[in-house]
Write a structure and sequence with these properties.
Elements lengths: L8 H4 L20 H15 L3 E6 L4 H4 L4 E3 L1 H10 L4 E5 L2 H10 L5 E3 L15 H14 L5 E6 L4 H9 L3 E3 L4 H11 L2 E5 L2 H10 L6 E4 L9 H6 L2 E4 L4 H4 L3 H10 L3 E5 L5 H6 L2 E2 L2 H10 L5 E5 L2 H10 L4 E4 L9 H4 L3 H12 L11 H16 L1
Parallel strand pairs: 1-2, 1-3, 3-4, 5-6, 5-7, 7-9, 8-9, 10-11, 10-12, 12-13
Helix pairs in contact: 2-17, 4-5, 5-18, 7-18
Bound molecules: 1,3-dihydroxyacetonephosphate and iron/sulfur cluster (SF4).
Iron/sulfur cluster binds next to α16.
């Protein structure tokens, strides 16, 4: 079995995948918002067609307003693939910028303004752990064809591993299709790292009876024999922003507003998704609110910046956060500070590239195979 590049578990498990972190120079720390906006726009004008700025739906207003394209992770990967600008500045988190680097041509440069924007869930499936799990599960089910599927919210080494083992990548907007494809290729799926998206997808496909969980941190929670009997094995990873939502938040919002409609992201727990009216990617959430009639109430179960954008973009709709003040922002997304954006753009104008994301060639080639499989499904 080809193995992922592994590491010593004590020393190499880390939140930040890139150690070439460059911190913001002092001169950029206290910029006034109006001045910053003018400087960003001036740098954009100077760079012209050489630059494209992509912004995930969870980015702050001050980033989203400068982005050439705002969307969910799937849409941003398509935009990155189609971009022909020399510089792709990514308002998002590390795994998204890695994916953009993999998908763009070799002569394009992907910049993540702050290298601290690392999604904790992506860090929950480390190469060493995945290698160990794969060895145990395949040993327990020697005759099974297990197809690994990695959520887009994962690092490039995991995507590469999936490609090597005949699997693919999926996002929250195409998980159903990718699971169906996987069951045409083999007879079991190992899904990593988000157990909630995996469980919600299994339910949509009517396969909820045949799920097992694999907790890489718990020696008691890993029973390879039991797992080998299930059709779907879910890695025990999760997003803390989405795990916060509970079923009683849905009940409370329905009590507060008679006509409340509830839409949540599929990274939410199963009971929350079941209680909601709609579950879907951040793009689905945006489209649903955009299509709502004036005066309708929509309670949003996802990261708070997106809820705030929807309130600004659609003042005719009553957009409310599903758990009120308790709704969280994503700490990783928040690291993309507009001061950092100003700095990286002005450095590009001066001919200097800062905080470049570059996936190692062999890993990028394989990860690309897994992402291309997704784009073709
Ligand atoms: P989307 O793919 O729906 O944009 O979600 C990305 C994400 O990070 C959700 O937490
Ligand atoms: Fe990661 Fe959750 Fe943030 Fe999405 S919202 S980037 S899954 S931590």
């Amino acid at each position: 079995m080809p193995e992922m590049e592994t590491a010593d578990i004590e020393t190499d498990l880390s939140l930040f995948k890139y150690d070439n972190l460059e911190q913001l120079p002092d001169a950029y720390r206290e910029l006034d918002e109006a001045e910053r906006r003018d400087r960003i726009e001036a740098a954009k004008e100077e760079l012209g067609d050489d630059l494209v700025i992509l912004g995930h739906n969870y980015q702050r207003r001050e980033i989203v307003e400068h982005a050439d394209f705002v969307g969910d992770s799937y849409q941003l990967s398509v935009e990155a693939a189609e971009a022909d600008a020399e510089y792709v500045v990514f308002g998002g988190v590390t795994f998204m910028a890695e994916s953009a680097d993999i998908i763009t041509d070799d002569d394009q440069t992907v910049i993540l303004p702050s290298m601290e924007a690392s999604c904790p869930m992506a860090g929950m499936a480390e190469a060493l752990q995945v290698d160990a799990a794969w060895a145990e599960i395949t040993r327990a089910a020697p005759d099974a064809d297990i197809v690994p599927i990695s959520y887009m919210n994962s690092y490039a080494d995991l995507k590469a591993f999936c490609a090597e083992q005949g699997g693919a990548v999926c996002t929250s907007s195409n998980a159903d299709d990718v699971f169906e494809w996987a069951f045409e290729q083999g007879d079991k799926v190992l899904f990593l790292p988000d157990k909630h998206l995996g469980e919600n997808t299994a339910h949509r496909l009517g396969m909820e009876e045949s799920i097992a969980e694999w907790d890489p941190w718990d020696p008691e929670g890993k029973d390879a024999e039991e797992v080998a009997e299930s059709d779907i094995v879910l890695w025990d990873g999760y997003c803390q922003v989405h795990e916060r939502f509970r079923e009683d938040h849905v009940e409370q919002v329905r009590e507060e507003y008679d006509d409340a409609n509830v839409i949540v992201h599929p990274e939410c727990r199963r009971d929350v998704v079941e209680a909601a009216d709609v579950a879907g990617s951040t793009a689905t959430i945006c489209e649903t609110v955009a299509e709502a009639d004036s005066g309708e109430t929509w309670a949003i179960g996802t990261e708070i910046h997106l809820t705030n954008h929807l309130q600004r973009w659609h003042p005719e709709v009553n957009v409310v956060p599903l758990c009120g003040e308790a709704c969280m922002d994503c700490n990783a997304m928040r690291q993309i500070d507009p001061n950092y954006l100003t700095w990286v753009l002005e450095e590009l104008v001066a001919g200097r590239e800062r905080n470049v994301i570059e996936v190692a060639a062999q890993e990028a080639e394989l990860a690309d195979v897994a992402m291309e499989r997704m784009l073709e499904i």
